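Help!! Second protein's tokens look totally different from the first
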Amino acid sequence: MRRAMVKGRTWLGACLALVAVATVPAQHPVASPLPRFTAPPVVRGAFDAPDDAPQPPADAQSQLARTFNAAVPLAGGVIIAAQPFYLRAAPEDLARATDCLAAADYYEAGLGIADQRAVAQVVLNRVRHRAFPASVCGVVFQGSERRTGCQFTFTCDGSLLRRTPSAEAWQQSRRVATEMLLGQVDPTVGLATHYHTDWVSPAWDRTMDKIAVVRTHLFYRWRGTQVFEMRHTGSEPDIAMLARISDAHRAATVGSEAPQLQFLPVIPTGQPPLTAPTPPAAPRSGLGSVLAAPPPNVFLVTLPAGGTPASFRAMAEQRCAGVSQCRFIGWTDAARTPRALPMPGSSVDAITFIFERRSTATAPENLRWDCTRFAPEGTGHCI
């Protein structure tokens, strides 16, 4: 974005290159051309929750938050649409930006096209704002290295481990992302830089103007004059956390140890080691990735009936004894225990218990479990 706009055939060639390189990986081709953009028929302030929209929890606190949020009026005045965002960068940077934006769309907005476009617009607004990083991946994964402080919840709450998009859902998210990086604008949310679902009520929104509602998401802008003059850095970082679902980010894990949130392959206790599959007969996941045998420091266990997080921890410590970096994952449903990675979404959704030891000298053990089945305790966190 630091270069001047290229005209004529050069500009047309750049657009075609972006579509060819950054739309979807070769193993997941889009069956039809990019759809023509039609502004979604969203009424400001209206609430409509079809099946593809994130659904609000039914607990009393969430319902109270929804009541409070509904009482906050939309700010007056005209919503100013953002300027089109054209990402001009090397092919590998275009591909990384596309997948980062697609991940934000899928994990933050669900499957609704209108929701995904609105979330993508917020990301691109932030790229242009001096308060945020000047790259798409930098914005989406800002603060993800910390347990608190991440700007987009899915980057630090374990969603990337628990949920895997289907090939069709990933294609759709990448298509929407590509549209936005080719200059598509969502006028519904204007210059919003923040949003949250309507069943939470964070303190920060009290100092901002609520400017739009897109089904279950509320969109905000800072008060006062805001300047969106920042230019894209021209490069996009590799995000190791996306390596499991993104070919563009897979290089982030080559030749290095798995990062803190890297998804490690696992197999059930008692199963013999799997032989590495040989192409072309190797089985593949729904996203086209070859299933691989796990490393020796990763274990998967079908947990015994009647156990507790404390007993599961004892099992994990016994299995990980003498191993400085170890991961132990447990299921209560043996039918959902995977034998290799990438594990299917049905297995990810059914994880009951996770024990992680990253380094006996520098990091404490990390415990997580399904708090809908087991009561939360002070020594662990809910999955």
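Here's the second one for comparison:
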Amino acid sequence: MPGSTAALTRLRVAITALFAVDGFVFAGWVVRIPDIKHQTHASVGALGLALLGVSAGAVITMTLTGRLCRRYGSHPVTLVCATLLALSVALPPLTHSVAALGAVLLVFGAAYGGLNVAFNSAAVDLIAALGRPIMPSFHASFSLGGMIGAGLGGLVAGSLSPTRHLLALTVIGLLVTAATAPTLLRYDTPVPRAERHTDAAPRRLDTRTRRMVIVFGLIALCTAYGEGAMADWGALHLRQDLDASPGLAAAGYTCFALAMTVGRASGTRLLERLGRSRTVVFGGGTAAAGMLLGSLAPWTWATLLGFAITGLGLANLFPVAVERAGALAGPSGVATASTFGYGGMLLGPPAIGFIADWTSLSTALTSVAVLAGIATLIGATSK
């Protein structure tokens, strides 16, 4: 168990690197969704069902991952999930039907969901050891990785096939995982023994604690719905509704990820100054306004601005929700909040796809503003 500042710093760097590569790999997949849609000849609604596989796989494995973290520790589980994520991202370009795409995205989602529970659990324990609300900094690295992954994806979209692009992501993911493995395997969870949750069964929680975990889970749900919508549908909205080029369409998610990175990089100071409730209220209101602009504006520049405002607003909602749920209930709290969150992603892709079939994609994306508004109300009433 690490007791020195240097050891805690090494752990923070290793966990930060895994957050970053998670965002990088996921964004690299996201910017190739239009190409995969064309390859599989999927309609908007059918693509929504296939994308359901990512969220479904995540939700299915989250509770199991929480139990594995309690039994084996969050560090080994993190490394296993990171390896599986890197390997599975290469699978979508190998499919040529919606059914096959949905199946491989189920595997990809399982690895993605497991990794998110595992490294968030590791981050919660490290935060307890450091005594500062630094969870936004970890998620800032995820957003930075997403921004870089989306930016590079946009640059290579016209010259590199999806197969080669995503295979390169596999190699990068495996290299980063191998580089962080010695640190994560060497050091145990840096919290006092009395605060650990390594038993196979979750500790019994009182009614108020369970209620608060659910409240944070609902905030995570509203936030993840918005993040998933931006990832899955943002580029397609720009290309299909505004006739943007492939590179400019990829820039939509880049703007969103950059804004989230900026918001999360300043998140620790924001939390220390405003507190968690005010941070949620401010962020939810900002995201709702930004998404209304991004989904309804008829100009590409205004849509990109709206996406950026949305990212700035959503930036710290999910980190706050997961960190507080984990502080209250350990890995089971992280798993619960994450399950709620990815439940939002589970509902988001098909809901937006079906609404788009009935009305339009731009109208369907306004549902993100509605959910952000709900997160604002929850934050305002859960002080």
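Reply: Different proteins will give different token patterns, so don't panic. The chain has 14 helices and no strands.
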